[in-house]
Structure formats: structure tokens, C-alpha cells
Design a protein that fits this description.
The protein is mainly α. It folds into three domains: 3-97, no CATH class; 104-200, Tyrosine recombinase, N-terminal domain (DNA polymerase, domain 1), CATH 1.10.150.130; 215-404, Orthogonal Bundle (hpI Integrase, Chain A), CATH 1.10.443. The protein has helices at residues 59-83, 89-97, 104-115, 121-138, 150-162, 168-187, 215-223, 230-243, 250-253, 285-294, 313-317, 319-343, 353-365, 370-376, 382-404; strands spanning 3-8, 18-27, 30-41, 45-46, 51-52, 261-262, 267-271, 278-282. The strands form three sheets. Strands 1-2-3 form a three-stranded antiparallel sheet, with helices on one face. Strand 4 and strand 5 (51-52) form a beta hairpin.
């Protein structure tokens, strides 16, 4: 059972010689104090009877007020303990006083810092950037969770669309980050479950389009002459290598070492950055020939295979450094691939990730089972791979329509 008592905290005496009155709540040997917003002198308080003495000019009114506060607190405690026998002293205090209005930005930024070393650095940076984006829209950090309503979200979505020119995918992600912070605060019992404006407002999702190179486009890309431009040639080889090695991601290919390659079994084995799972994939002849091109007589196991960017020891030990290196490398690869795509007159901008989509669509077109494609791409759920099956189905429908009309 919890106990409640009125305490004059003489250790907090002010300059006028008065001390504050508090309700003291004790539960499981833990104590919480709740201010009654009253101050009186020590000689005006009867600690045994817990009343204001008659020498105070407003003793009758104050004692009535204190009695009502005690009764209200006892009622709240009884109600809460009936519903939850394990209620803590903190929960009892909140039931009596009401939950504090938690500042959204203070909580969210603090939450990011607490999770910094458990999140991928890119995820951590995304969280902070999208919180900053919302802060810029609000104009200050003076906003509680209670202040964020359906109207707030609608207006913010409008701002993202009209002022920033964001598409629906970006707007949805912007709202998703805010919603994640709400859910974290609710798990900590700082925000009531009843207050979740995201359940009453959403932005229509943009139709997702997976870009990939057709067989003819891939053939043209492989024949494209980029000689004389060393970085362009390397990124071109990396792109083709990805297509013929299970769609390995850019971040994994730039850090590939010879020790990751088993030349006897023609397998690449490494821990994938995104999933942190060890992954093994048998590569095709085209990929094998590319590796032979970069293999030198003095190459050792610890050497990086593709000389596209500077991968040093710090890259593998300092995630901030790794993130910086990868960002620069992605920017450089985009520059070269965009130029190649324009030369080929592709109807879309060529990026490295398209190599991954190209592998998936080629594999399915060639009759590989979707379970095998999913495994080779290291998907956590075959449902992710189903997207490519839909693309193949759509391509087939278009081909049929073309020839029967």
C-alpha cells in the first residue's frame, strides 16, 4: 500500500522565512514529492496533525484546501492501485499530479543520442536530419507532444510538398520519424496511448518504380567505352560485377577484399553491412573475369579488390569515417554512372542500385526460383523479392499486349 502525508520542507526555506508544503507519496520504499503550491512559516505548521495552525490568518481556508488535495490524492491512488497492483511511486505521482508536458524536441534529440551506438550511422543521421527539418518548420524547439495534432501534421505535410517540393515518399518518411519518437515516448509511459495523431492522418504513398536495365540496355552498357577515365572504368566494372554476383550492394563491393573471394569455388563471402549477416554467393563468369582483371601478381588477401576509393584501417574501425568515405564514393559513382546513362540515352537516371534490380529481374526472367533470388539478395523476407516478380509479370503482360493488338 502507498502512504501519503503532508510535509513542510523546511530545507527549502526562502528569503522571507517561509517553506513549501508538499504531498509526500511513499510506495515500495520509494518517495515522490508533489508541490501544493503553498508556503508558510515553520511556526504556522502542526506536523503531527498536518494542519495549518490558527496563528495563520487564512488557516481555515488553507486547511480546507489541503484536506481536499489529500482526499483527491487518496482517491487517485486507490483507483490506480485497484487497476494495477504494481503501480510505482512515479506512476502514483503522475496519477495525482498528471503527466508532465514532455518537450518533443528535447526528448527526440536525447533519444537519438541514447541510440547512437545501436543504430546504423546512416539511420542515426537520418533521424536527426528529419527532426531538424521539423524543427525548422516549427521555427523553435518549444513544442510538447500534446502540441502535435492532426492539424499540425497536415500543415507540415503541406509545407513539405509546396515549400520544399518533397514527393509523397519523402513526406511519408518525414512523418514516420516523428511517429517513431511518439511510439518511443509511449513505451516509456510519457505520452498516453490515446494521443497518436498519426493514426488519423496519412499521405498517399507514391507508386514505387524499380528501375532496371533490360537485356539490350545491359549489353550496351557493357560495351560502352570509358577507357582513359580510370574511376569511370572501375565503377562500370563494379556495376557489372554486382549484376553477376547476386546484386551485391555498393557499400559491400567497395570494401571487398581478396580474402572475401574463394577462387576455387568462385564464391564471395562477407558480412553484409546492411543486415550484419554473413552472406555467401557464387558468382558468374562475367564477374570472375572482372576479378581477374584486378588481380595483381603481388596482391595479398587484405588488399581491397576495386581501387575506387581510399579504404584504410580507420574505415573499418571508425564508423563516422566509414560513413564519410561511403557518401563521397556514392556521389562520385553517381556522377560517372549518370554520364554513362545519358550516353546510352536511358529513359531514367542510372544509379548503382539499379545493378541490384537488374540482377533480380534477369534471374527471374531466366527462370530462377524466387526463393533462390531472395536468398542471393540476402532479403530478410521473400515478400521484398515479390516486387521483382510483379515487375516480370507486368513486363510479360506488356509484351503480350504489344503482339496481340
Amino acid at each position: 500500500m502507498a502512504s501519503i502525508k503532508v510535509i513542510l520542507r523546511i530545507n527549502k526555506i526562502d528569503k522571507s522565512g517561509k517553506s513549501p508544503l508538499y504531498l509526500r507519496v511513499i510506495k515500495d520504499r520509494k518517495t515522490k514529492f508533489i508541490s501544493l503550491s503553498l508556503k508558510i512559516s515553520e511556526n504556522e505548521w502542526d506536523s503531527d496533525k498536518q494542519i495549518v495552525k490558527k496563528n495563520h490568518s487564512n488557516s481555515t481556508r488553507l486547511n480546507k484546501y489541503i484536506s481536499q488535495k489529500i482526499a483527491d490524492a487518496q482517491g487517485q491512488i486507490a483507483d490506480l492501485e485497484t487497476k494495477n497492483l504494481s503501480a510505482s511511486a512515479r506512476r502514483l505521482k503522475e496519477a495525482i499530479k498528471g503527466k508532465p508536458n514532455v518537450n518533443f524536441f528535447e526528448y527526440s534529440y536525447d533519444r537519438c543520442e541514447k541510440q547512437k551506438h545501436t543504430l546504423a550511422l546512416s539511420t542515426y543521421n537520418n533521424y536527426k536530419n528529419y527532426l531538424k527539418k521539423f524543427e525548422n518548420y516549427i521555427g523553435n524547439k518549444d513544442m510538447t507532444f500534446d502540441d502535435i495534432t492532426v492539424t499540425t501534421l497536415k500543415n507540415y505535410a503541406g509545407y513539405c510538398s509546396t515549400t520544399l517540393g518533397n514527393n509523397n515518399t519523402t513526406i511519408n518518411f518525414s512523418l514516420k520519424i516523428l511517429g517513431l519518437m511518439f511510439k518511443e515516448a509511449q513505451r516509456e509511459d510519457l505520452v498516453p496511448l490515446s494521443h497518436f495523431p498519426f493514426s488519423k492522418f496519412s499521405v498517399k504513398k507514391s507508386k514505387s518504380t524499380k528501375r532496371f536495365l533490360s537485356a539490350k540496355q545491359l549489353e550496351a552498357f557493357m560495351k560502352l567505352d570509358v577507357s582513359g577515365k580510370s574511376k569511370a572504368e572501375v565503377i562500370k566494372d563494379m556495376f557489372i560485377f554486382s549484376v553477376f554476383s547476386g546484386g551485391l550492394r555498393f557499400g559491400d563491393i567497395i570494401e571487398l577484399k581478396w580474402e572475401n573471394y574463394n577462387s576455387k569455388e568462385h564464391k564471395i563471402t562477407k558480412v553484409i553491412r546492411k543486415t550484419n549477416r554473413q552472406h555467401s554467393v557464387r558468382i558468374g563468369k562475367v564477374a570472375i573475369d572482372i576479378l581477374k582483371k584486378y588481380k595483381k601478381s603481388n596482391s595479398i588477401d587484405s588488399d581491397i579488390i576495386f581501387p575506387f576509393t581510399n579504404i584504410d584501417k580507420e574505415y573499418f574501425t571508425n564508423r563516422e569515417q566509414r560513413s564519410k568515405v561511403v557518401r563521397k564514393a556514392i556521389a562520385l559513382s553517381c556522377m560517372h554512372l549518370t554520364k554513362m546513362g545519358k550516353r546510352l540515352e536511358l529513359p531514367f537516371s542510372l544509379t548503382f542500385h539499379i545493378s541490384r534490380h537488374t540482377f533480380a529481374t534477369r534471374a527471374l526472367n531466366n527462370g530462377m526460383r524466387i526463393e533462390h533470388v531472395s536468398k542471393l539478395m540476402d532479403h530478410s523476407d521473400i515478400g521484398i523479392t515479390q516486387v521483382y516478380a510483379k515487375i516480370i509479370s507486368s513486363e510479360l503482360d506488356n509484351a503480350v499486349d504489344k503482339y496481340i493488338n
